[in-house]
Amino acid sequence: MSRKLGIALGALVLLLFAGSLLIGPAALGLGESLAALVRGGAERDAVALVMQEVRLPRALLGLMTGASLGLAGAAMQGFLRNPLAEPGLIGTSASAALGAVIALQTGIASLHLLALPGAALLGALVSVGLILAIAGPRGGALALILAGIALSALAGALTALVLNLSPNPFAAAEIVFWMLGSLTDRSMVHVGVAAPFVLAGGAVLISLGRGLDALTLGEDAAAALGVNLARLRLLVILGAAALVGGVTAVAGAIGFVGLVVPHVLRPFVGARPSALLPASALGGAAMVLAADIAVRLIAPDRDLKLGVLTAMIGAPFFLHLIWRLRRQLA
Amino acid sequence: MTLMALDTIAVSRGRRPVLGGVTLAVEEGELVGLIGPNGAGKTTLLRAAMGLLHCAGHSSLADLAPRARAHAAAFLPQAREVAWPVSVEVLVALGRSPHLGAGGIGEADRAAVARAMARMQVAHLASRPATELSGGELARVLIARVLAQETPLVLADEPTAGLDPAAQIATMEVFGALAAEGKGVLVALHDLGLAARHCTRLVALSAGRVAAEGQPEAVLAPEVLAEVFGIAAHFEAGPEGPVFQPLRVLHDNR
Q1: Closest Cα partner for B91 from B103, B102, B83?
Q2: pLDDT(B171) > 70
Q3: Interface of B with A in 124-153 (CB under 8 A)
Q4: What local confidence, expressed as pLDDT, does residue A25 receive?
Q5: A227 neighbourhood in chain B, CB within 8 Å
Q6: CB B248, CB B230: distance < 8 Å
Q7: What residues are paired with B11 via a beta bridge?
């Protein structure tokens, strides 16, 4: 990533992060809000409470969710050498959603604040074990894609089954709304749940740049350049699963960020997979922060879900992508 | 010094044997041509030598750790794959990746990349996206990537396929120059004329076994050509070096 692009994306993320802190139903002044962020002890008034307990966790989760999905998407595309790859491809997000849905359905979710994210993380963990077992230790990219599709379909079917057997419409509605993905009403506890997975997964994926660069030449050439492909694949799966599992557990399923962001930024980094990793992390953070500000501005009282908005932006973009690919191939 | 030693390499795909015990060594200063009809096992032998597929027998390269192997030998696969529209210069610089420390690309690496691009006459393409090159240009760029690795040994799988005559000759001359510098090159070839003129030694594979090995004029003898390729050919040591021209098919040997 060139320094110029890094600074531009970094500044954009900072701006949107500040925007996320400043926009909300409680109309607070700029200076007042920022001062309230650091106010503690006896001076901790309602304004400080709103800033510290509501808006700060929301902005932090937006940052983490977007960066995770962007980074995981760039790593998956680089590893599979396919611009249509996305973080959900290995089945982690569908499995995490299944875990959360089971927690909501059984009522475990209402027992403890951490029960729902915990169940989602468990779902993600099971999916990683399954995908490694199905795709095999030496299988190539194709085996991984097929295993991921099968696993996503299975998790999706089980999620539908849980919805189908749901005892009352309220539980079903709760499940559906959770699955749409949102950052509303999250707390610092949620930030604390996701942060270790996001940091660990991010550190793993960002270190894989050189291996992904070498893969530009194909698997044989990369292996001959000294890349340990089995290790690279394991780390891509573990890193992406930690990121996606971590943020899905707290924010629900938020689609298209990991697909769209790397694709938009690829021309700006000279198409190098290693440079695309940090750029996509920043770009993803910017996209989710912006979308989360937008849901608050577009329909403040209707609770428009974040995942709905990213899909509304992402799906037409996806069509545009296919359209361009078709023209290139013609 | 021996740069690579293969000892009774055997590979099977399911129950079908692809290679049946190939023993082969490449010494410093050699340009060895690996010839044989389609399906004889040339590509499989090169991949087995690099440790890219599971095989019985023993390869001195496959025994090395991945990074040490990337310092000992560079490999040019047959498939000319480039997944992303990176610039030619970035693509060639991938050849330096086994040499990079924590600091990334340094002066010495940049110099090696420039040397390699000059040698393959692709310096003028440096800033072009690699996915927008012609087939022949891409082939030369990918060879430059292998040269940038600056290894004692180069293994190349059909590097001249699809190149125009000038680029074919230039490429074989580059490999010849590497051999003259004391490096070793093992190159799989279909063009027996190029093999006859440029290689210091030929190895003819047939149905996964070494059918003949030695000086080009010995390996391209009429009885070997008839048995391995099923063709008759004209071979002559002319004033400008050996001239080889396939003439006709003798029988269908497949």
Answers
A1: B83
A2: yes
A3: 129, 142, 145, 149
A4: 73
A5: 66
A6: no
A7: B19
DSSP annotation of B211? E
Judged by CB atoms closer than 8 Å, whether chains meet at B83 and A218 is answered as yes
Three-state DSSP class for residue A320: helix
DSSP label at B84?
Answer: S
Q: Which residues of B touch A266 (CB under 8 A)?
A: 84
Which pLDDT score is estimated for B49? 96
Residues of B in contact with A75 (CB under 8 A): none
Q: Say yes or no: B69 contacts chain A, CB-CB below 8 A.
A: yes
**B142–A81: do the CB atoms touch at under 8 Å?**
no
A211/A201 Cα distance (integer angstroms): 16
Assembly ipTM: 0.92
Alpha carbon separation from B151 to B53, B74, B95, B178 (Å, rounded): 21, 6, 10, 10
Q: Which of B75, B81, B82 sits opposite A224 (nearest CB)?
A: B75
Question: What is the C-alpha to C-alpha distance for residues A326 and A330, in angstroms, rounded to an integer?
Answer: 6
Contacts of B111 (CB under 8 A, 6+ apart): none
* Beta-sheet pairing, B231-238 with B241-249: antiparallel
Q: CB-CB: which of A215, A225, A272 is closest to B90?
A: A272
pTM here is 0.91
Q: Is it the case that residue B199 has pLDDT exceeding 80? A: yes
Look up residue B204 and give its two tokens: 């003819």
Chain A interface test: which of B61, B86, B89 (most A C-beta within 10 Å): B86
Residues B10, B119: contact at Cβ < 8 Å?
no
Tens of pLDDT, residue by residue over B67-118, are 999 999 999 999 999 999 999 999 999 999 999 887 788 899 999 999 999 9
CA distances from B154 to B174, B179, B187 (A): 12, 10, 8
**Which of A167, A177, A171, A151 minimizes the C-alpha distance to A253?**
A177
Interface of B with A in 1-30 (CB under 8 A): none
Cα-to-chain-centroid distance, residue B78: 9
CB pairs under 8 A between A and B: 76
The CA distance from B183 to A298, in Å, is 68
B193 touches chain A (CB under 8 A): no
